[in-house]
Amino acid sequence: MAEDNKEMEEKIAELQMIEQNLQQLLSQKQNIQVQQIETENALEELKKQTTKEVYKIVGQILINSDKKEVEKDLNSKKEIFLLKIKNIEKQEEKLREKAKEMQREILDKMNKK
Fold it and tell me: What's the pTM?
């Protein structure tokens, strides 16, 4: 009986860890999505520019840059953000499945008592 309680406590602790990991992933995903949106907004503004030269922020200063190069850099960043989001979503799905499995195990053990 005591062994069953200990096993149950371990399962519950593991489920809590999974849920914490899920929260961390969701936070990371949200931060990356914000960066992606900012990058997309910058690309839209860049398309509106009629000049070939634009300014970009590097550290604490503005630097005169070629519009095509800045556009290329922003598109590259956008692709990286999309890949990161996709990767996080895969991890998120695996954790959700693991959490559901743990919940079923815990409920099964509770119902058997």
Answer: 0.83
